[in-house]
Amino acid sequence: MKHLSTKAIHGAEDPMDNQYGDIVTPIHMSVTFAKERITETEHGYIYSRTANPTRDKLESKLAMLEDAECGLAFSSGMAAETTLLMATLSSGSTIVALDDLYGGTKRLFRIFSEKFKMKIVYVDATSTSNLKKAVKNVNPELVWIETPSNPLLKIVDIRESVEIAHEENALVVVDNTFASPVFQKPLLLGADVVVHSATKYISGHSDVLAGSIMLNNRELCGKMKFLQNALGAVLSAHDSWLLLRSIKTLPLRMKKHEENAMKIAEYLSSHDLVKRVLYPGLTEHPGHEIAKRQMTGFSGMLSFELRGRLKDAVTFVEALKVFKLAESLGGVESLVEIPSLMTHASVPREEREKLGISDTLIRMSVGIEDLEDLLDDISNAFHKLNKQK
Ligand SMILES: *Cc1c(COP(=O)(O)O)cnc(C)c1O
User: Fold this and answer.
1) Average pLDDT, the chain
2) What is the mean predicted confidence (pLDDT) over 113-138?
3) Quick check: 31 pLDDT over 80?
4) pLDDT tens, 251-285?
5) What distance in Å separates the CA atoms of residue 201 and residue 150, rounded to the nearest whole number?
6) Neighbours of 120 (CB within 10 A)
7) Percentage helix, strand, coil, to 5, in the chain?
8) Which ligand 1 atom sits nearest the alpha carbon of residue 210?
9) Structural domains of the chain, ranges and CATH numbers in brackets
10) Does the beta carbon of 77 sit less than 6 angstroms from any atom of ligand 1?
11) For ligand 1, atom 9: residue with the closest CA
């Protein structure tokens, strides 16, 4: 079993592992597990926070997706990140991070920095000389990158970041949510830890909140397993089962997400009302060459800036019918949002402008509907906008 779709379907799910040869892994709802004698532990299960047979299958499958030794499932992406920070940092530690991180990650860093006197240094890591300067300066425990990033679709060179970080003995964490394991495998590029909000592409149906961590370092894996049980932010058996089901179509879904996103990015770039399109698949994207090198596809997320003002962006997104106006991403359904009013409203205006998140920046999570319907929807919204002008 070498190829991704076969792994996604059969990986870690052998029907002969269970009593009746179930083709579909059963949901083990039991919280506790009985044994014959006090000293016996032949099946190895004691209590579901520590380990659960359904979650175990999922964790093995998650590891396979990233070509990792170790996979762990949590109740959300943020739960995964919290556990990871607890495992890798101590009071007074330093993190060097990409400036365009997911907002919730920045909030979590802020909490840790206030409570435990940690130092967080944000850099535009698309320039490796920036990154190098910061890493040399502060000698961090962690270098945290997200590529492609949210919402500006910045691309960070993973291999080069790893080289810079490892020179100073820092661990490299890559939030791989936007690419999914189908299009990018940071561990194979030298990264130490991969984080996913499995709520997004890995679930793909906007019906499970989940997070995952994949890594190869055995010692860190042991620490993570200990803390997963100790902190208790585990994924439930039922949600683990839903993800096992979701993952079977992940490679298929990602292909269609990318195909649709590429066509929509091209359409938008040719439109008079669009100032610029941010999609790593476009040759004019500043990270295109790096993306081509380290990804096998450009995924389904894109952002673009509308000409005009905030109210025009509002008119546009409200005119869309097939694209639903909502936060989150990575599901089969197309979603649209305005970062300055929605996902990134908590970032102060000044900081937003410095980062390049303008008022008319619109983010799309392109779904797997028929492309013609998505293009019609966008074209109709532009007509409505033109009429109002
Ligand atoms: C959503 C998201 C998270 C947080 O994950 P939750 O499952 O919502 O807790 C982290 N990183 C990125 C890039 C995300 O999009």
Assistant:
1) 96
2) 96
3) yes
4) 999 999 999 999 999 999 999 999 999 999 999 99
5) 14
6) 19
7) 40, 15, 40
8) 7
9) 4-247 (3.40.640.10), 250-388 (3.90.1150.10)
10) yes
11) 77
